[in-house]
Write a structure and sequence with these properties.
By secondary structure, the chain is mostly helical. It contains 2 helices and no strands. The chain is elongated and about 70 Å long.
Length: 73
């Protein structure tokens, strides 16, 4: 329970600090850069999953083709 209180206190202090930092133009530019970086990361993450899905489909097709070749032999 004590650790949970520390965690909640840290989250609250983080939000308060972010609020004060966001009140000036330099702070807003900082958060804009952070948001831009997070957007780039999430796009890269999503495209990685799409590529993995494509690779999985390709591997399935290859496996099926190899099975067909084996069955013909």
């Amino acid at each position: 329970m004590r650790k949970l209180m520390w965690l909640l206190g840290g989250v609250v202090l983080g939000f308060v600090a972010a609020h004060f930092v966001n009140q000036n133009p330099e702070g807003r530019r900082f958060f804009d850069r952070v948001n831009r970086g997070m957007n780039e990361f999430s796009r890269a993450f999503a495209s990685g999953y799409e590529a993995e899905a494509d690779d999985t489909e390709l591997a399935d097709e290859l496996e099926e083709a190899l099975r067909d070749l084996r069955d013909r032999a």
